[in-house]
Amino acid sequence: MALTVAQDWDRLAKDNGGIGFVDTLLRGAGQVMFQDNPVTGLLFLVGITWGALAADQWEVAVGSVVALLIATITAKLLAVDQTAVRQGLYGFNGILVGAAVPTFLGTNSYMWVYLIVGAAVSTVVMMAIANIGATWGVPALTFPFVLTTWFLVLGAWSFNHIKPVALGPTGFPVAIDNNAAHVAVSASMLAETLFRNVAQVFLINNVVTGVIFVIALAVSSRWSAAFALLGSALAIATALVLGASGSGISNGLYGFSAVLTAIALGSIFYTPGWRVLAFTVLGTIFTVIIQGALNAALSPVGIPTFTAPFVFATWLFLLPKEKFMPIPHAPIAHDAVSTKTTSGASS
Amino acid sequence: MALTVAQDWDRLAKDNGGIGFVDTLLRGAGQVMFQDNPVTGLLFLVGITWGALAADQWEVAVGSVVALLIATITAKLLAVDQTAVRQGLYGFNGILVGAAVPTFLGTNSYMWVYLIVGAAVSTVVMMAIANIGATWGVPALTFPFVLTTWFLVLGAWSFNHIKPVALGPTGFPVAIDNNAAHVAVSASMLAETLFRNVAQVFLINNVVTGVIFVIALAVSSRWSAAFALLGSALAIATALVLGASGSGISNGLYGFSAVLTAIALGSIFYTPGWRVLAFTVLGTIFTVIIQGALNAALSPVGIPTFTAPFVFATWLFLLPKEKFMPIPHAPIAHDAVSTKTTSGASS
Amino acid sequence: MALTVAQDWDRLAKDNGGIGFVDTLLRGAGQVMFQDNPVTGLLFLVGITWGALAADQWEVAVGSVVALLIATITAKLLAVDQTAVRQGLYGFNGILVGAAVPTFLGTNSYMWVYLIVGAAVSTVVMMAIANIGATWGVPALTFPFVLTTWFLVLGAWSFNHIKPVALGPTGFPVAIDNNAAHVAVSASMLAETLFRNVAQVFLINNVVTGVIFVIALAVSSRWSAAFALLGSALAIATALVLGASGSGISNGLYGFSAVLTAIALGSIFYTPGWRVLAFTVLGTIFTVIIQGALNAALSPVGIPTFTAPFVFATWLFLLPKEKFMPIPHAPIAHDAVSTKTTSGASS
Questions:
Q1: What's this model's pTM, rounded to 2 decimal places?
Q2: What number does CATH give the domain C173-325+336-347?
Q3: Which residues of C touch A235 (CB under 8 A)?
């Protein structure tokens, strides 16, 4: 029956412009974890709303939907490839901008204007980064969200009407001490963190939301759900072994990027297999190291990493290609400097 | 008559090597605001000189001319496309290096050596960045100036003979307070800031210089002059709405990048029209947000943003292309990792 | 006779898998200074070991060899171009990771795991950066080492089991004072620094190691040895003229990147000649300026520049190409924004 409903929906979405647009928005939500699936997207929105209301932050839920809408409409107005728009590829950065801005900045009318400008710009940045990445066949991932939102939250320091309520504290990086690294490991803590890591992909700190997100993934791809949990578990193990901040670990802050790296490398961009599994494990572990590195690097300016650790690790692990040939350490042919010389001068 | 003089000049510049070189230098000055026009360049030099002398900083005027000269000569010596050299495309980053170095570093003989090295390097960096940008059909803009001069002024902290007299103060970003954001808006303040924003493109804080610059633009392109003023007005409005630093606004520091973004998007790289106008407005507003963001991000190292907000915003708004196709979230063909696996192993 | 031994070795390396692998490792060491030569690599390992033992840091010698091994094996496991693997192009970033990690982080079992993960990742990053650089015909240089190791050492602030013993002190950049810039120049100081600069390419602060390294270069290429010494001498002169930190200069910290820039531009990637010599001198001087700049820029996060000044300067000086054409300041054809407009709207 579920299949029939899905077929009915797809037919409706094709025939009816309004339903087609809702379908586009839902796919946009789903694409945050690479799923071109409206049911996944719908469940993501349910999970976000649950988590936002549980934390008494309705602005995060509303902001996500508003930004998803604005980013998608901007894409429809610009003359971009409409197939990609229909797959939700211009929505997933917007929804993240809309979740992040009310999480880190104080709620007032200026914040909403800021959020709307940021959502529209995220579509332009998506087009820009996708154009660059296409040169090497790599996707933009969530970098348009990261870049746009870094500008937005950094700007909050300079603009009196935009309040950096959840930014900072700023400071030089200092070596973490034994106290801060302490974490009471228990079965329930591990189980909760496993799902919190998934929830934090949308900046939500809520176990139920994480469970809903994993179900949403499984609806579309069991591989993706499995790799989300694998990435989450690997992140917990890596962060515990290295001795990361206890509160950081248990709030899911060492896991959300690793979850995305594991889904991306393990189930989306490479064909699953043993070699890819090993490669994914290495990439996921390194994502946790980049998380620690960027936490330190950004501490003087007091802004969060967002999903940058996922983006950087996944780009580095996607860029290698079979026919790739490094430039040998030998003279470059036809350069601007030496060619004119060889005939006229000698050394 | 003006037309006849212009024709005479062009003929002279073609026939006489010396006058041709002067023509190249003047076009180099003009290209800072994208004008391949020697009269515009000449008026820019007049405006710089006026502003520099009014501020008792003759080094800025002399430095601009010296660096323009060095950068252009370096381009002639390297075997680059001489058509581009003749259009002044190797002069505009040099002249900006020459204006910035004496503005931020103390005057002594070492500073002059530093300025000359920087001007020569700016040409190499222009060739490098232009080569990269050509991959996506986007211009280098003033990024060669920004990158070269960031290295030069950051180096001033480390070199005892180079004095960082106008750098800093360094510090962590802190939320701007009501006092600092206060600004007494009046007709004269708005009118003055409108032109100061244009003058600050060359790091000059002078209303008359701004007026001369707008006239210089109008000589070459009325669209460019109009978009310069539109960008300036939009920047003032955006900065006031967001509550930026009052002294920053009235000294033109929130407007110079926006002026360049508006000229570039509105009148140079896109064909003017209503859609482009809306796109330019969005890009200009976001330039002001990037300005606030980079002000905060660079405060720990105490260096100015230069025109980086313009460069980053304009690149992001130029990179989208009609035939652009984002990479779908699906397996990448022919990768280094999984292809070998699919036949030999399964999961 | 040396020739016969070399021929014997090459035959053995071709016929015998084990000896072939040792040959690959030695070439990997040699490629740090661009030499596809096993004798050079062997002498580099001798120099590293000498310097490490003299400083009572056996971990640096062992770490270098272990990381060289791990990086090379990773490359053999991934389906990359095996000719490049045989030339050692997947070893040179690994060996540098292996020298740097024990130099800056405290020795414990976690550090060794960290080093092994970093060495394996350095190969993936090499493939990624080489793929990007190939677009413009420029090599990855040591950027895979720099990027990987920046992540590793920055992460040390966040991980309790990884100890940042030789990082920091963190702080805002401050203008260097006369005292710190003072240096007693003498013939012996100059001679020692000349070789220390070369030794510091592998993060070794030892004159004998520097002498061994220069001999190792001369075995493979007299041009490379000559340019190493030229780059070193130029770096000393530039740093003294600009007034860099006296202890920085005499410990070789202003010279190691300049040594690499000079070898790369002067003897490897361009055909030697007078024009190239002038170009190399400019690039080497600017490398010293970038060194001062990055020292200041990284001081808030307390990490070293590694060879980033070499990488950035050499990329900027390699990217210019003969047929290079800057993008003119004129409308871009076929853009996403304006094309749709021109028919439907006017302005």
A1: 0.94
A2: 1.10.3430.10
A3: none
